[in-house]
């Protein structure tokens, strides 16, 4: 059996890639980012960002992966090998300059970014498991507005518990990835994604029937354009990239397992649709519940872990819907951690010639070690998110756009994109976006992050 593997079906690829995109970014991060950025106006900008910027990059990453059949480092190196050739031996300074000019460094950045995001993302994923058990045991029913901060801080400041939850979540992730592409990632995605959608549907029905749900819907769906600002645009763009798992090599890696007969424009459109749908549904669940409880929608990152437990404690049926919600979060987190771990695993298989099981367990153990500082300190976790989830992710996405648009060339990329499809109707717009709109948008994100101190 090949260590590398391939998708067994079109549905399997779509569900697995959607699972990668669907994660805490949709159900934890999207609602609190929407809340602090004025509600519906942020949602509107986010939807535009998905269509105009994120989807074109998604298509580019999947196409690059399928064309080369390699991990991010191998993909960049295959299309554009590093400078070399005959002639006299270059000076040390020139050798360093040449090494810095190699495009595969963008691939290395993607692999490193994915690995580092996994190290702290798994800590937050562990919180979802911890709060699921709080909900199942009924402890969540004892949480009130007065003690929710204390409960949260007591939970995250327990070092042994945090390390155990981190290790548990990484164990689940490694277990799936070690079983292979078709037998592990695809098989579990076919189970987890329908379960996730089913839980979302149940929670949606309950939330929309709460008293004062209409006020939450108005905040979420009726734009107040007085809230429009440059920081809101930057955060919407950043959320689109983070949510779709772009800039960290995940979609290049997943694309490398795609059959040449697959319709890439159609499949990537489905991935973007599912990702956006689940984020949108999460907002439809959370904001009516927040307004029902009379709480602040701009609750920030603690929205899910500090505010929602209070809501579930007050809500009729909270004993049922609390556990369901945190189970939903745990499943969403797992579908993402699986995909992020696959990036360094694919690199180890392709470049280091390790077998899949050994690569998955070695990288999982290293990730546990690297993740411990984030498990022990929220400040450290925030710093890591700023460096890897904001700066590095944006730089990686910018590298992909420039590489596909100007190095690989859009004409060659389109030959790969249109294999297996009768027609790519939006080819002209895709070229415009990948060459001009996307790079400019990412520069705006970087300006917002570096100059204005915006984080997402």
Overall geometry comes to globular
Number of domains: 1
CATH architecture: Orthogonal Bundle
CATH topology term: Hydantoin permease
Helix segment tally: 18
Order of helices and strands: HHHHHHHHHHHHHHHHHH
Q: What is the top-level CATH class? A: Mainly Alpha
Terminal CA distance reads: 41 Å
Q: Report the strand count.
A: 0
Give Rg in angstroms: 22 Å
Low-confidence segments, ≥5 residues, pLDDT <50?
Answer: none
In percent, how much strand structure appears in the residues? under 5%
Topology:
Layout: H1 10-21, H2 24-36, H3 40-68, H4 72-79, H5 92-100, H6 104-136, H7 148-156, H8 159-178, H9 181-208, H10 213-221, H11 230-243, H12 250-255, H13 264-292, H14 303-314, H15 318-351, H16 356-376, H17 378-417, H18 427-450
Written account of the structure:
The protein is mainly alpha-helical. It has one domain: Hydantoin permease, CATH 1.10.4160. It has 18 helices and no strands.
């Amino acid at each position: 059996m090949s260590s590398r593997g391939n998708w067994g079906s079109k549905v399997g690829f779509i569900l697995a890639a959607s699972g990668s995109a669907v994660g805490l970014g949709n159900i934890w991060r999207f609602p609190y980012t929407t809340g602090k950025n004025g509600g519906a106006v942020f949602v509107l900008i986010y939807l535009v960002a998905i269509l105009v910027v994120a989807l074109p990059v998604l298509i580019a990453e999947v196409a690059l992966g399928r064309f080369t059949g390699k991990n991010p480092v191998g993909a960049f190196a295959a299309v554009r090998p590093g400078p070399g050739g005959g002639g006299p031996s270059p000076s040390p300074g020139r050798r360093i300059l040449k090494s810095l000019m190699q495009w595969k460094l963008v691939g290395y950045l993607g692999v490193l970014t994915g690995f580092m995001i996994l190290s702290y993302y798994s800590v937050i994923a562990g919180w979802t498991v911890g709060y699921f058990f709080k909900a199942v045991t009924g402890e969540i029913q004892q949480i009130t507005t007065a003690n929710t901060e204390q409960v949260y801080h007591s939970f995250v400041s327990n070092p042994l518990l945090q390390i155990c939850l981190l290790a548990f979540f990484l164990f689940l992730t490694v277990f799936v990835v070690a079983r292979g592409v078709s037998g592990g990632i695809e098989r579990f995605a076919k189970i987890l994604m329908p379960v996730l959608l089913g839980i979302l549907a149940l929670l949606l029905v309950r939330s929309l029937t709460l008293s004062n749900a209409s006020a939450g819907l108005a905040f979420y769906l009726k734009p107040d354009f007085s809230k429009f600002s440059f920081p809101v645009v930057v955060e919407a763009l950043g959320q689109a990239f983070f949510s779709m798992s772009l800039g960290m090599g995940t979609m290049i890696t997943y694309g490398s397992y795609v059959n040449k007969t697959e319709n890439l424009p159609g499949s990537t459109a489905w991935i973007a649709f599912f990702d956006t749908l689940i984020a949108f549904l999460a907002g439809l669940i959370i904001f009516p519940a927040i307004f029902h409880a009379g709480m602040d929608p701009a609750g920030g990152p603690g929205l899910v872990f500090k505010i929602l437990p209070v809501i579930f404690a007050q809500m009729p049926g909270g004993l049922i819907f609390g556990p369901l919600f945190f189970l939903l979060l745990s499943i969403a987190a797992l579908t993402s951690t699986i995909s992020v771990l696959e990036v360094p695993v694919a690199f180890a298989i392709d470049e280091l010639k390790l077998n899949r099981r050994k690569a998955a367990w070695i990288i999982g153990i290293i990730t546990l070690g690297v993740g411990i500082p984030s498990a022990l300190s929220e400040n450290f976790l925030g710093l890591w998110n700023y460096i890897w989830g904001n700066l590095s992710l944006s730089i990686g996405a910018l590298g992909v756009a420039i590489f596909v648009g100007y190095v690989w060339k859009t004409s060659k990329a389109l030959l790969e994109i249109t294999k297996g499809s009768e027609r790519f109707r939006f080819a002209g717009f895709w070229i415009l976006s990948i060459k001009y709109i996307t790079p400019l948008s990412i520069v705006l994100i970087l300006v917002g992050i570096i100059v204005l101190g915006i984080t997402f």
